[in-house]
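Pilot study result, target chain (315 residues):
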Amino acid sequence: MEDNTGKWPGVSPCHQSPEQLHVIHGRAERALVGRLLGSPGRSGDTTRNRSVHAAPQIHWSGSVTAKVRAGNEVMPVSEQDTLARHHERIRRRGVNRIVYWPVRAFVQPALLLYFRVRRAGRHHIPAGRVILAANHRSFLDPFVIGICIRRPIYFVAKSEIFHNRLVGWLLNCLGAFPVRRGESDEESMATALALLARGEAVVIFPEGTRRRTGPLQEPKRGVGRLALESGAPVVPIAVAGTERARRGWRIRPVRVNIRCGRPLSYPRIESPSPLLATEVTARIWPCVDLQWAWLGGPMRAEAEPKEQEAESFAA
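Predicted structure:
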């Protein structure tokens, strides 16, 4: 058996009670957070962690819905199967190119002209696998983000939309896959990981739901988990103006601005803990907030005292 003594600060040989092991695990985990995130650019710090690997080749042969939904009596089995089929189609085939490219050929110039879309920082989006982390103001967001690059993007949409078979099929053909809001959706995470392993671009909205007015909401930790499990770079994106487009069933011609920041990279972790995923999310979201501020979006009130304190310190 390998001797792990001395690998982590404060870790002693493994002849301790479960309570002691739990405490020591927490200390070691915080040390890992500090190593991975506290000193970016250092080499050698993460090589000793056995859970850090190169990007894997993921092959999906089935659905994980049965495991995720086991014991949940809220959703009927038929709806589970419907969502599972959408996930499986996206994993195996990607977008339906017969549908996607004609729709894009019509929608892209229409969006650019009707909404007078301004796209800044598109050169920051790298080729290959990438996570596009953006704020969420309108149902138009994934479509205006999609015209920032010349290849298909994949994005999550609330599972309720897929209850309509025609709408669900069309969105699935255009790159959407369902996510169950308000819970940890392992099926959606598995689909996103499969797409990233294939070199695709995946849009994720860390806020978890749309917020049409006011400053950005606090993010969920899913984006941090996805970045760590996939090892893909994360591009922070802010979208402004789409929240003013819809009034009832009418879509008004308002100006839409998009700003893309520089990509953020994190080491790949096979099974990141909630603590580590939260820490990574806490480093991604301020970059989205920064792009939002550049577009003139309203900021949270608690940011003002920090700015005043920084100005007084500088003076």
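One observation from the pilot: Residues 50 and 269 are 9 Å apart (CA to CA). A full batch analysis is planned for the follow-on phase.
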